[in-house]
Amino acid sequence: MNEYTINNLRQLEAESINIIREVAAEFQNPVMLYSIGKDSSVMVRLAEKAFAPGKVPFPLMHVDTTWKFKEMTQFRDAYAKEKGWNLIVYKNQKGIDAGIGPFTHGSKVHTDIMKTQALLQALDKYKFDAAFGGARRDEEKSRAKERIFSFRDRYHQWDPKNQRPELWDIYNARVHKGESIRVFPISNWTELDIWQYIRMENIPIVPLYFAKERPIVELDGNLIMVDDDRMPKELAMMTRMRKVRFRTLGCYPLTGAIESEADTIEKIVEEMMTVTVSERTTRVIDFDQEASMEQKKREGYF
Amino acid sequence: MDIKEFLDQDQKKDLLRLLTAGSVDDGKSTLIGRLLYDSKKLYDDQLSALERDSKREGHAGDEIDYALLLDGLKAEREQGITIDVAYRYFSTSKRKFIIADTPGHEQYTRNMITGGSTASLAILLADARKGVITQTKRHTFLASLLGIKHVVLAVNKMDLVDFSKEVFDKICEDYRAFTMTLDIPDITFIPVSALKGDNVVDVSSNMPWYHGKSLLEFLETVQVNADYNFDDLRFPVQYVVRPTLDYRGFAGTVASGVIRVGDEVMALPSKKKSKVTGILTSEGEAQYAFPPQSASFTLVDEIDISRGEMVVHPDSIPHVDRHFEAMLVWMDETPMDSYTQFYIKHNTHSTKARIDEIKYKVNVNTLEKSKIDHFELNEIGRVVVTTNKPLIFDPYKKNHKTGSFILIDPVTHNTVAVGMILDKIDSSHLSANITDKEKEQIVKSGSLITAEQREKRYDQKAQTIWITGLHGSGKNELAYALEKELFDQGKTVVVFDGKSVRSGLSRELDYSPADRAEHLRRVAHICKLLNDQGIIVICSFISPNEDIRKQVKEIIGENRFKLVYMDTDIDFCRKNDNYGLYKLADDGKLDHLAGVDEQYDVPERPDIIINAGENGKGLERILGEI
Fold it and tell me: Above 80 in pLDDT, residue B535?
């Protein structure tokens, strides 16, 4: 040990900042996808640091399925205003017009049209050639092999057999017109790293992450919060107040809560270390089929 | 300990990146699975999913198949092998770990190279029953190639050899003998049984003769921080932050050394100097920054530094050169094409590069060297590279960040090869050959008029008269006199000399042997094209190297090539030097001048020899020859 040591979080941070700057330097038109979740919040903080004392030189974009928790949208708007972000909010108008929603069309159709298709439309509309995402390799098996610069063809498709070798910290940023790269600057962070960093840096997060009495119905074993009156009446009738928190955030009808007493970051971590359920199990969309994340990635979802 | 203390302590841990390589049979995945499992990082639901998967696809009978935890992609799972590099994360009370898990077979050499590029330690597996086999050797060579300083040889399946000390000792001895010639400073041997858990996390009671640490204990305690270089500042500028007109921050990751406020620094390649006025790290204003920190700094002067340039201390300067040798690993399915001008990316700098020569290929199994003319997937060899713009580099061995590069195909944009720069060899000792492939490139033209018909029309024999000799030997005077004479006789003739060709066609090339070879290659091809059109070409080039003159002759064609040698002594040339080049070379201001710091090979068999000052008579002799 000498005076020139940094801890593991600072090491991960330096790596991520390096990636973010590299993208800003090499691509014409990058965008940072902002999902309002904790991972996104960390990623945006890293971007702010990468260009300090200047401003982040690219826009943030939120693909809004219109089914997000109210608290998420409120948080997004307030925080973006406070920080002066250049924030694009994109909604799939065709999907809205067709009345697509998880209750009427099921999670698969809803996610495909309002999330995956919406993202692809937005990428095409603004002609982004690089899009940052907050995915981490430890979240799920098929992500463990994901590159940091993940190449997508003109149709935004991911081909697991055709990914570029990635060595040292030298990233190949060359793409032809229409092709793009998804960039995952926090690939090497774990869930615990994210919480630790939020704690160390005092990063504001959506209050849904903390335990509180919330109106809950139980659907197929998932604890779903009744966030607005779009919840079908026959289900909403069964609402009970329960003290819960969310480990991941998404569309409210598709995101399961867990019963919890954890109302601080420390308690969340404590709970995480003892109550052992990995975080993606509370996200309903993963269970559609075996290796389903891999399937979705091939189709263009992250 | 309450949770706050736990988090505070956890935050202070350092991070160890390690590489594992091996095949299914070695029990590598089982070993990693156990490290993850026994270090209690596996979440319950991953475990229950695993039990479900094991029953359906597992290869481990009724026991839990740890390997299934690791193999991510569907196709790979069906084949029962790990194809790509998978990254795994776990932590213990002492340290955090990132494992790059790579497959073992020879066809996955590139995967291991990828996974190993960021690792400071490698765990290699040997099967106790088989000992040090080809695969172990291959993995060890690759680890040493990548400059991984710490290697653990985990001798696995000790349970199948009755935990025998003799078996273990023999393997250690064989391995030591093999690694003698390889550059690996720290090798550790641990006897384990991944399946049963012996010496993986806890020291096993089955091998009381073993007094070392368990694998996990070793990983928790091995010192790797000392591997960073804190002496030689290398700060590749990645991005220039300009929030206001009067603020200019140079941002990047410190590759090595320490940058401090008040330091005098030098920007390369411009060599402009200035003083550091402020440093900003991720934690705010700082007095200094060090690797692997990310930082940005400001300077007292308004000097212009852009992305791709490097900031250093004036007392420790890296190489700035367009020529270097490197170990190259071919990563692409498509074999190398020697004519390709690749994009090269070297830290934050991009330019173009060509491979001048492949010195040899290394057989990754036997370490034998052999001559090849191009690379196929997974092949590794030593090459000579020339770039369009200079790279600012150190040998990979001294500095991984400034000594590594990737080559990108200009058409497919794939990363086709990766390289590690070797100790720089003075560029005058580098290759000066036009590649042998040249010969195959000479193609028949589609013209309906033959060279003979053209020659008949012009009433001349199309040929190239190539005048070689020292600078100042009177080549140009002779060339232009000859041109005039032929022109007056009604012939169609052109002259090329160094000045005219270098000002345009070869403008990006310098006087180093590698570039001179390329320069003369271009000239030779033009001569050939013009001769095919029936035109006489007179060339006046020092062309000091016999090999190159021979290759030029091959390109142009033996029966159309006449070599004229200006046989003059150096004193005559010095007196006749209208440009003062000899003086510049003597003063060390000019490199690669034949007769001064570069050898001039006297032609073995010139067609015509002209002595100093006999221009008039010489002219007649040449006219007689053609």
Answer: yes
